[in-house]
């Protein structure tokens, strides 16, 4: 089953409990629009290379299409359709007025100079211009994209916007065309930490509901922006993170003391690899062989809580039965396949789904968009306060449906989303 089929299986399962018009399910089973563009780039050596760019605009019943742009050589259309679909569900769960979209360029950005990357981004913006905008489709950073790239998109979009003499009163503030921008280009305070912080707010609610101890052991797969921020927050609130990994492998604290995450972050910046950063207390040592683990091994460790925060599809039918954690807390998008989800459910493992756990990023993206559209600039305290309100409310709603209908949290999150989407559908 490919990633998109897996996503649709989740939709079908939830539809059995949502009590919505079957036509809503049919309409949500296909994306509204798929855009593909060619991107001719003149390289620094004078050669011409043509790249492929695309955007999937899945559904906009709740508001403008919303979702990231990724630059990656192995972008797969089924994966992107799934990701855009999950954005629809995620935005409905957290109750922000956005639909779902996703896209990117089939390119290895590491092959390009900064000048070439900027030019390719500007060409991409030109090609997408008729189909994106503050009131229509609002992209954001994703894999291999960042605030700098979003800044280039804003500059190019605003330039064309001005050349066409478009009216901000009817078309919206052009700086709101993307979120995740640098602060000096009308970005929002708190955007970088948002996904990790939102996840932490959800985690704290789960701890209360399940009466979990702060001595519970935690393994985190992924130490990028999301995983590192969440790991830091857990550490600073006295939780025990005993396993960490990045794309090259990881470390496991066999003594169960828990890592000093602040030191691990400093060490990784210096050495480049998590597996070289065995930081306990105030000391960092090189990990021994029995303390180094692969990403696959991390998933199967005897810990209380497993947090996949890296790639899609890492928990599968092949390894789900080997998961020993009592809780799987999904900070990555789509880390658990549909078949694996069934296995975890039968084992009685609580899965906090991605569409709830990692929705903090798009929530603060909404705050950024709102600030741009209303010429406001929020302080970090307000961003965090508003984020916590929406995260806690989303968790409470999902938890209540789960208890009332006696279904798992993923299915209850989808039920909540379907109820909100059906109320706004174009039927």
Describe the structure.
The strands form 3 sheets. Strands 11-8-7-6-12-13-14 form a 7-stranded mixed β-sheet, sandwiched between helices. Strands 1-2-4-3-5 form a 5-stranded mixed β-sheet. A two-stranded antiparallel sheet has the order 9-10. The model has no long low-confidence stretch (mean pLDDT 96). It is globular. With 427 residues, the chain is α/β, with parallel strands linked by helices. Helix 7 (194-210) packs across helix 8 (225-236), helix 7 (194-210) crosses helix 14 and helix 13 packs across helix 14. It is built from 15 helices and 14 strands. It has helices at residues 3-18, 22-27, 77-94, 114-128, 147-163, 168-171, 194-210, 225-236, 261-271, 295-299, 338-346, 354-357, 360-373, 380-405, 409-424, and strands at residues 33-42, 48-59, 65-71, 100-105, 137-141, 217-221, 240-246, 249-252, 278-280, 283-285, 292-293, 305-308, 327-329, 350-352. The chain has 2 domains: 36-182, 3-Layer(aba) Sandwich (Rossmann fold), CATH 3.40.50.10860; 194-357, NAD(P)-binding Rossmann-like Domain (Rossmann fold, 3-Layer(aba) Sandwich).
């Amino acid at each position: 089953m490919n990633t998109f089929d897996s996503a649709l299986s989740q939709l079908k399962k939830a539809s059995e409990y949502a009590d919505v018009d079957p036509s809503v399910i049919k309409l949500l089973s296909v994306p509204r629009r798929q855009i593909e563009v060619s991107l001719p780039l003149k390289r620094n050596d004078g050669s011409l290379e043509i790249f492929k760019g695309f955007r999937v605009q899945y559904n906009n019943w709740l508001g403008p299409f919303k979702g990231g742009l990724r630059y990656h050589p192995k972008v797969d259309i089924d994966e992107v359709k799934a990701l855009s679909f999950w954005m629809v569900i995620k935005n409905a769960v957290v109750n922000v007025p956005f639909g779902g979209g996703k896209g990117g360029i089939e390119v290895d950005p590491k092959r390009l100079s900064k000048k070439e990357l900027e030019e390719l981004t500007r060409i991409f913006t030109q090609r997408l211009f008729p189909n994106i905008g503050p009131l229509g489709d609002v992209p954001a950073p994703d894999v291999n994209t960042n605030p700098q790239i979003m800044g280039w998109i804003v500059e190019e979009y605003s330039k064309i916007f001005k050349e066409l003499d478009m009216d901000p009163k009817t078309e919206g503030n052009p700086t709101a065309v993307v979120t995740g921008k640098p602060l000096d280009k009308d970005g929002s305070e708190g955007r970088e930490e948002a996904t990790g912080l939102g996840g932490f707010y959800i985690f704290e609610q789960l701890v209360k509901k399940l009466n979990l101890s702060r001595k519970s052991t935690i393994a985190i797969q992924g130490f990028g922006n999301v995983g590192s921020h969440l790991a830091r927050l857990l550490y600073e609130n006295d939780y025990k993170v005993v396993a960490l990994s990045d794309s090259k492998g990881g470390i496991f604290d066999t003594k169960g003391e828990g890592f000093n995450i602040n030191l691990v972050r400093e060490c990784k910046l210096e050495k480049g690899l998590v597996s070289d950063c065995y930081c306990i207390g105030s000391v960092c040592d090189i990990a021994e062989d029995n303390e180094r683990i692969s990403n696959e091994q991390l998933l199967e460790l005897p810990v209380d809580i497993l947090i996949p925060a890296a790639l899609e599809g890492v928990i599968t039918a092949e390894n789900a039965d080997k998961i020993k954690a009592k809780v799987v807390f999904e900070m990555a998008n789509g880390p658990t396949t549909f078949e694996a989800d069934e296995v975890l459910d039968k084992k009685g493992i609580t899965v906090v789904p991605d569409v709830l756990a990692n929705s903090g990023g798009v929530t603060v993206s909404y705050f950024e968009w709102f600030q741009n559209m209303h010429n406001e600039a929020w302080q970090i305290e307000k961003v965090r306060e508003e984020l916590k309100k929406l995260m806690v409310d989303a968790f409470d709603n999902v938890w209540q449906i789960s208890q009332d209908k006696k279904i798992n949290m993923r299915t209850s999150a989808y039920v909540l989303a379907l109820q909100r989407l059906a109320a706004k559908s174009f039927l």
